[in-house]
Design a protein that fits this description.
Blueprint: H1 7-39, H2 46-79
Length: 81
């Protein structure tokens, strides 16, 4: 069964790219905030800060992969036309 590109596909791509950009901005902000907390006198120790930084990186990568999956499927369908 051949798949044809539809305006719906284009909307999905635009929305998912926008969502990924928003996620990246939010996680970058959280990472900066974490850095400020770690630098304060009563802030978190280095190990805790690194654990949180790694968790935020994992979250960003996981969300990015989840968003990219539909885009890759659309690209595969379009390539098969």
């Amino acid at each position: 069964m051949k798949s044809h590109r539809t305006p719906g596909h284009d909307r999905i791509i635009v929305v998912t790219k926008g969502a990924l950009r928003d996620v990246n901005l939010a996680l970058s902000g959280l990472t900066l905030l974490l850095g400020q907390i770690a630098n304060t006198e009563a802030g978190a120790d280095f190990e805790t800060a690194m654990d949180w930084a790694n968790a935020l990186q994992w979250l960003r990568d996981s969300i990015g992969a989840a968003i990219a999956s539909p885009q890759e499927e659309i690209a595969r369908q379009e390539a098969g036309q």
